[in-house]
Each structure stands twice: as C-alpha cells, then as structure tokens.
C-alpha cells in the first residue's frame, strides 16, 4: 500500500463519514487526480481482503465502513435503548433528511427537545447551529444508517411514526 493510500485510509477512518473526492484531496494536500489514484488503490486493496471493512462509494462520498455481512454485529454489540417517542422523533428527522429543530418541534411537540438531546448523545443525530443562529439543523448520522440498515422501502414504512404521540 502506498503512503498516499495509507493517508486516505487514515482520513476515512478518522472522519467516520462520507467524503467527496475533493474533500479527500484537500485533506491529503494533493490534486484530485492524485487523490483518485490513491483512493482507487485503497478500494482495490479492501476489495481483495477478507476483512470486515470496505471502502465504498455512497451518494455522499467515499467512506470506510463495515461490510454488509457484519452488520448483525452492530445491533448485537451496540444496542440502543430508545423509547417510542425518541424513535418517532428519529424517524421524522430521517425522513426529512435535514430539518430545523423548530420545525421538528412543530411536528413532534415540545418533547422533541429531550429526544434530540438523547439522539445526539447516542450518535444517531448531528446538530448544527443555523447560520442565522436562531435554531439548529438536525440530520441523521452514518451511525444511524449502519445501526438501522434501512433501505428505501423500510424508510417509507417509518413515515407512519411521524405523527405526534397521543
């Protein structure tokens, strides 16, 4: 493995989220074609390994992740203890993709503030202040996708949980 591929591997591991080719090139400090060559070398090495990890291209970029055949370990080793309310709040965030916390509270009620805090602590939701400073943007993290292993059909089924609790 070349030094460049090793650096890219370290970057993907440390970032723990999808990165575009441009972001990888910026982190490594090289041009895009050079970063692409290093990334392709790394992807080829992981493709021929029999290990638990892979370098994959997602709609959001490239990521170092657990192979599908090992996803059962996530639920076995990292169980999340979430109540129905928090799960419904998480479903609302996941279905919206990115949602302002104020909009989420309108949908889910004032308990959503507590749910969001819990979901952020568990690593399922990322919370970032909006540029105008009035609220936060909420979106699910890669941990959410890995833990729940949702495909599009399953995500549509979650829509029934968006409605406020009785």
Question: How does this structure look, described?
Answer:
There is one protein chain. The protein has 166 residues and is of the alpha+beta class. The protein folds into 2 domains: 3-70, Winged helix-like DNA-binding domain superfamily/Winged helix DNA-binding domain (Arc Repressor Mutant, subunit A, Orthogonal Bundle), CATH 1.10.10; 76-161, Orthogonal Bundle (Arc Repressor Mutant, subunit A), CATH 1.10.10. The chain is built from 9 helices and 5 strands, in the order αααββααβααββαα. The protein has helices at 3-15, 21-28, 32-48, 72-77, 84-96, 101-108, 112-122, 142-148, 152-158, and strands at 53-58, 61-66, 99-100, 125-129, 136-140. A 3-stranded antiparallel β-sheet has the order 3-5-4. The protein has a two-stranded antiparallel sheet with strand order 1-2. A hairpin with a 2-residue loop joins β1 (53-58) and β2. α1 (3-15) packs across α3, α2 packs across α3 (32-48) and α5 packs across α7.
């Amino acid at each position: 493995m070349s030094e460049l591929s090793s650096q890219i591997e370290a970057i993907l591991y440390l970032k723990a989220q999808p990165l575009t080719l441009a972001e990888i090139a910026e982190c490594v400090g090289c041009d895009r074609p050079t970063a692409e060559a290093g990334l392709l070398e790394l992807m080829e090495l992981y493709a021929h390994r029999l290990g638990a990890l892979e370098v994959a291209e997602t709609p959001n970029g490239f990521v170092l992740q657990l192979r599908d055949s090992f996803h059962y370990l996530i639920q076995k080793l990292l169980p999340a203890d979430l109540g129905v309310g928090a799960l419904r709040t998480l479903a609302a965030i996941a279905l919206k993709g990115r949602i302002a916390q104020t909009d989420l509270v309108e949908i889910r009620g004032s308990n959503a503030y507590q749910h969001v805090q819990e979901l952020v602590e568990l690593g399922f939701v990322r919370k970032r202040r909006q540029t105008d400073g009035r609220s936060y943007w909420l979106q699910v993290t890669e941990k959410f996708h890995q833990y729940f292993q949702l495909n599009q059909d399953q995500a549509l089924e979650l829509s029934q949980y968006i409605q406020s609790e009785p």
